[in-house]
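Lab notebook, bench 4. Still working through the backlog of constructs that have no structural model yet. Next entry is a single chain of 354 residues. Request: give me the structure tokens for it.
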Amino acid sequence: MVRLRESGRGAVRGITRSTSAADRDERLAAADVVVHLAGVNRPTDSSEFDTGNAGSTAALCADLRRLRRQIPVIYSSSVQADQDNPYGRSKRAAEQHLMAYAAETGAHVAYFRFCNVFGKWARPDYNSAVATFCHNVSRGLPITVHDASAPLWLLYIDDAVAAIERLLSEGIPHSGEYAAGPIYETTVGAVAESIQAFSSGRKNGTFGNVGSGLARALYATYVSYLPADAFSYPIQQHEDARGVFAEFLRTPNAGQISYFTAHPGITRGGHYHHTKTEKFLVVQGRARFGFRHVVTGERRFLEVTSAAPTVVDTVPGWVHDITNIGGEQLIVLLWANEAFDPTHPDTIAMGVAE
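Model written out:
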């Protein structure tokens, strides 16, 4: 409902188990479309599958028929509707009730057979291993993996909602099954390892590719389970007479981000790289960057200030340093294209003035 309300399509009225009969009738009567997300998947008694899935959907169809309007319905079914188990049979029966309603009234019905939906706000220790893993790992609790190689097909909640939103925007062209995706094919062990790596990353500052695909969705889900008192974490600072240096973030293939400070008059750097490149951004103060070509001896100097944000590149084969020429502490943000490896530092000490 949160995403549907964000869409600005008009009033979104919810119907839950606690909705009164009068409110239910009033909301259905005013509906332009019904998005049916209700269901039962972990009952105390298996008979509740029939009443909570097939029965409730049959009741919805009966209510819609009485309105004598062609009100379209979007239904969240399950991939288990193809399976011969109590839950699967109840979801398949719900689909059949909806298709009968479509055939009798001319209303269009779309149903999605969702698989293992995961994402924020799911209940741990219920029906999502991802939710349980994220909840436990974010709190330092153990997780149990019975078969690390067990296959797992996952659908991210935002992708499921996006599929529903497309039908709301474009309409339902015909009644029947619709697809949502992408579906991520993985294993239980791989998911557990990824989530544990996210937790470790907050301790060692190293994060993998969390900007796309399954890793992006899993990382967003993991962070959503952090307890409120764990929204922040400290990083280690290295301090000497020049100022401080701290590594903020490192990645396996996109470099690392750090920051450092320099007191007035202090010069930092004084080295060159053969391959490593860096980008500097002064976020407080005034600095002079010095450069000298290792072979030709050519020198260049430039001054930058935080008042006019400027990115300064270091270039392989050029010695470089940075001097605080202002009256306040200099603060500089630094990105390097590769994470620092002490066994292969690619950092050769040399002064610009030499």
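Notes after review: The chain has two domains: 2-208+214-224, 237-349. The chain has eight helices and 18 strands. Flag for follow-up if needed.
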